[in-house]
């Protein structure tokens, strides 16, 4: 998990880092709601995830900088469904739910929005509040990741993708193995805008195997 810098007499080191962080300044200048925008921008520049006309589900979306990036990259053609415990201030092209993704109501909301439509891209930047007890923080985080993976596997199109924030350490290899079982391709990404001292990385899974099997079976049934 991210290591919190030690507190100093002159205030918190975190605050110092925050106000001097070039990505924080850049986000303010560029009109993004948080520095997290640059992580998705960097990954998208390399992996070309976002295209006009897509349906994107953004889990752990507040304050909404990934939603902003998605709307921009889709050139306002497409749909973003966003969920967070915290409110995401309204944004054209984004439908949001203030709710807990682990609760059935969140899945019901997504199902109602999607009807039977499939999803092109599932993003999960979810991170639980850190208690400081690394083992339980990691366990809570990977519970969220597994739920997000389960959603992605069930709702992605055969050529869809799932980008998820994970923390290296306990649970990482198990989760990476689950990703490898679920997707044809799994790669690891550490954008420059992700702080070096953080064990945060992103796993990107492409082409869910279950969806491809369903597509083949449906095609065979039609013949
Ligand atoms: N990607 C976001 C952006 O660009 O603005 C930043 C996301 S922030 C790093 C992580 C978010 O995960 C927090 O806003 C937190 O409320 C959310 N989160 C944590 N647990 C959650 C849960 N069970 N359901 C929904 N959101 C959750």
Protein architecture, described:
With 223 residues, the protein is an alpha/beta fold. The chain has a single domain, classed as 3-Layer(aba) Sandwich (Rossmann fold). 43% of the residues lie in helices and 25% in strands. Helix 6 runs parallel beside helix 7. The structure holds S-adenosylmethionine. The site of S-adenosylmethionine (SAM) has 23 residues, from helix 4 and strand 4.
Task: List the main descriptive attributes of the protein structure presented here.
single chain, alpha/beta, Rossmann fold, two-stranded antiparallel ribbon, 8 helices, 9 strands, 43% helix, globular, binds S-adenosylmethionine
Quick overview:
The protein is an alpha/beta fold and 223 residues long.
Secondary-structure map:
Blueprint: E1 7-8, E2 11-12, H1 13-20, H2 22-30, H3 37-47, E3 54-59, H4 65-73, E4 78-84, E5 94-98, H5 104-114, E6 119-124, H6 134-155, E7 156-167, H7 172-182, E8 183-189, E9 200-208, H8 209-222
Parallel strand pairs: 3-4, 3-6, 4-5, 6-7
Antiparallel strand pairs: 1-2, 7-9, 8-9
Helix pairs in contact: 6-7
The chain binds S-adenosylmethionine (SAM).
S-adenosylmethionine (SAM) binds at residues 33-34, 36-37, 60-66, 83-86, 100-102, 125-128, 144.
């Amino acid at each position: 998990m991210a290591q919190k810098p030690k507190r100093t007499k002159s205030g918190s080191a975190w605050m110092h880092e925050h106000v001097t962080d070039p990505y924080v300044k850049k986000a303010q200048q560029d009109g993004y709601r948080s520095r997290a925008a640059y992580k998705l921008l960097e990954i998208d520049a390399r992996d070309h995830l976002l295209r006009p006309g897509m349906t994107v589900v953004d889990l752990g979306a507040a304050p909404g900088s990934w939603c902003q990036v998605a709307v921009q990259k889709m050139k306002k053609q497409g749909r973003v469904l966003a969920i967070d415990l915290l409110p995401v201030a309204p944004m054209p092209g984004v439908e949001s739910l203030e709710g807990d993704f682990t609760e059935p109501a969140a899945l019901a909301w997504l199902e109602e929005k999607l009807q039977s439509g499939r999803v092109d891209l599932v993003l999960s930047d979810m991170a639980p509040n850190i208690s400081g007890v690394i083992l339980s923080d990691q366990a809570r985080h990977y519970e969220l990741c597994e739920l997000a993976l389960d959603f992605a596997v069930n709702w992605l199109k055969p050529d869809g993708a799932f980008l998820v924030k994970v923390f290296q350490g306990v649970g990482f290899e198990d989760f990476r193995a689950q990703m490898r079982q679920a997707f044809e391709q799994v790669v690891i990404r550490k954008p420059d805008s992700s702080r070096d001292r953080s064990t945060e990385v992103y796993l990107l899974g492409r082409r869910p195997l279950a969806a491809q099997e369903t597509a083949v079976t449906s095609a065979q049934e039609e013949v």
